[in-house]
Amino acid sequence: MSNAPGGSSRALPRATRSVAARRRCLAALAALIVALEALHAIAAGSERIDPDVAARLRALDCAHAGADDVANVLAHVPAPRIVLLHGSVAFMTMEPFARFLIAMGYPAARLANPRDGALSYGSFGDSATLAGELAFDYERTGLAPMMIGHSQGGMLALRTLYELAGEFHDVVHVVDPAAGRTLERTSIVDPHTGRTRPVVGLRVAYVAALATGWLPRLLLGQWSMLPRLRTVPDTVDEFAGFALPRDVIAGNLLGDEPYVGTGHVRVRNVTLPARYHHVALPRAEHLAADPAIRAWIDAWSPASHAALPPGDTENLVHAADIWYSIKRHWCLQARGLLDTAGS
Predict the structure, then answer these.
(1) Number of domains present in the structure of the chain
(2) Does the predicted TM-score (pTM) go above 0.85?
(3) Does the residue 117 lie in any domain?
(4) Residues whose CB is less than 8 angstroms from the CB of residue 224 and which lie 6 or more positions away in sequence, other chains included
(5) Using CA atoms, how far apart are residues 69 and 102, in angstroms rounded to an integer?
């Protein structure tokens, strides 16, 4: 083989550069396609909204959306994905709580796992995978997802927020939830701006943690979450922590510390009635079946001081609180689609 100038030894670098150039072109083309798809998703989402509904949505007070507003306005606009995470006790899933939300008017398709249709996610899953799935959904809908976790499910929701904050990994890969496939890229195209941005740093809209305590973290060896369990990172707009007093399973017999937030996250701490039971907290479907209780929930807001309605009000406090926040974020985000499409 000749090593003279112009020989084969100098052809290899040119070939290598050519392959690298083609790869860069393909990567740029793929990024462009993703960007166009993201922008199309915003346009398609807004186009699906009837003009009369859009007008009512713009005029709606998102902090006081009642039953009629849900049925006649919000039910006809895109809804964010909600991931419901059950605790370590597998027989008590979050499905009863999902049924409550569906009965109150939330679309079942946005509660169901895209891969298998389940209404409740396990809490022993990988937080980086879940973060990647949330990013995938946001890229295609322009709607920031929400998470509601019971017991250990609350821990996984918090851990996922830390994944989005880059606490455990410098980069997080995008994950296609329907296919269960991890994609090669670690960035998404923000459908509201058309710009590429990393998954790390993405904010979700709302997270709620029900009876998530210290003791199970110790027993399960989840050491990395012990110093983080009551501090909420700035990768969520609103966080609600619900605690049961003297909860043996959560391990707060001697009291508990409140959740505190970092950055701009809004954190609320709610103490539940002592008569509630840790394992039974997801059981809320019965509340929507009682007309009087359902009307009370629809009218509830953090500023209201109405007496509890008659009937079986077990788990009413957190159910009403969570439904209020879901309605509010649903309304605000659907309006955001209209604003982006109109800009």
Answers:
(1) 1
(2) yes
(3) yes
(4) 159, 168
(5) 15
